[in-house]
Amino acid sequence: MKKIFEYFIKKPFLKSLFLITTKQPKNIYCFFFNFYTLINLSKAKIFLKDGFFFIKDSNWRFSNRHIGLMTYFKGLKNRGKKLYSIYLLKNINFEINDTIIDIGANNGDFFLCFDNKINYYGIEPSPTIFENLSYNIKNQNLLNIALWKTEEKVMKFFLKDEFGDSSLIPMENYTKEITVKTKTLDSLIDKIQTKIKLIKLEAEGAEPEILEGLNKNLNRVEYITIDAGYERGMSQESTLVKCTNYLLSNNFELVDFDSKSKRVIILFKNNFIQ
Questions:
Q1: What are the Cα distances from residue 243, in Å, to 68, 166, 225, 252?
Q2: Domain extents for the chain?
Q3: How many angstroms separate the Cα of 238 from the Cα of each of 17, 45, 98, 140, 144?
Q4: Distance of alpha carbon 148 from alpha carbon 181, whole angstroms
Q5: pLDDT tens across 182-238, in order?
Q6: What is the mean pLDDT of residues 56-68?
Q7: Which of 23, 111, 180, 215 has an alpha carbon 20 to 30 Å from 8's alpha carbon atom?
Q8: 156: which strand partners?
Q9: Residues 116, 118, 121, 123: what is their CA dihedral angle, to the nearest 10 degrees?
């Protein structure tokens, strides 16, 4: 009886409530968000200030309704634990002051995965989302740039911030087109000048080109975790094969793989670093 209730009543109701909530004006959205969390037995609450949404008691800011409800309805601690699991970080022994590069940082959620002090580099090309990242993550290294396989190239960047799908690869239903100047991972690591414990790469389909920009500094990177899901371009292709082939040909080995959700996550380790 419980399974019947869950599947035929509770699940459809929560799905409908989710969709209704994301379509509300900002002030009403807060009420619906808090009602949604209450039904899901979560203590997370939000409020509206100066046109932005804030998670109560944490001073964490976001601006997009869909992403906000999807990622924060169980609170920030839960969000960090979920990303830790999604990106297969259980396979890595982190130490204090490890250097982490977060490509596709969005609001800075990946930073929540780490309890110990780390040296964090957050890369977010979207100007609006970068403002949230800068507000949420203090005393770290945050860059409003786009990474690509070539340096100092002016390219079109397609914004789809509401769903966290902005990309250098054109896709359907983007909301705005801007121009960005690109950097390579090699040039970024040149400036960091230390060993990189982990690169997390989520670029909405541009992952292969970003990896191509990591060549001379490959042996300074110990781990790379990639969201290679079905998000590339108009045809929404996966970047799994291209990313895997590039890293295997450069002496990385596959440590873990997961495709349980809509994501396709791959974790690689550099064989040169023991």
A1: 29, 19, 10, 11
A2: 2-74, 80-270
A3: 30, 35, 30, 31, 25
A4: 9
A5: 999 999 999 998 999 999 999 999 999 999 999 999 999 999 999 999 999 999 999
A6: 94
A7: 23
A8: 179
A9: -10
